[in-house]
Amino acid sequence: MARILLVEDNEMNRDMLSRRLQRRGHEMLLAVNGQEGVDICLAELPDLILLDMSLPVKDGWQVAAELKANPKTALLPIIALTAHAMADDRQRALDAGCDDYDTKPVELPRLLEKIEFNLQAAANK
């Protein structure tokens, strides 16, 4: 399965989602703020990033833009996770460099489909 970096500052969300994805065979890397997410991503090069957009230190929009601007991480798929569910929020995340977008609370079957789709798309690049 995949190595997934989850960048989420809410401990309950981080714990719940990481445990559910680990049970499905994914290796999880965890970060609690945007800067830590960038640092872990550069050091570990995960297969996919699940990125909360409302983060301390650096928000998700900054993190996505920074990772997509770096040749080392530019092709890593990023799925934005946010409670912001307006159409312009989705577009803003995509404009920042996210490859996909999902709303909170997370519906695991839908998120699993997006993870699989984005992993396959990245493998075909």
UniProtKB/TrEMBL annotation:
4-aspartylphosphate sites (modified residues): D52
Disulfide bond among keywords: no
Ranges where the Response regulatory domain occurs: 3-119
GO biological process terms held by the UniProt record: phosphorelay signal transduction system
Transmembrane segments: none
SMART domains registered for this protein in UniProt: REC
Keywords assigned: Phosphoprotein, Two-component regulatory system
Name listed for the protein in its UniProt record: Response regulator
Organism: Spongiibacter pelagi
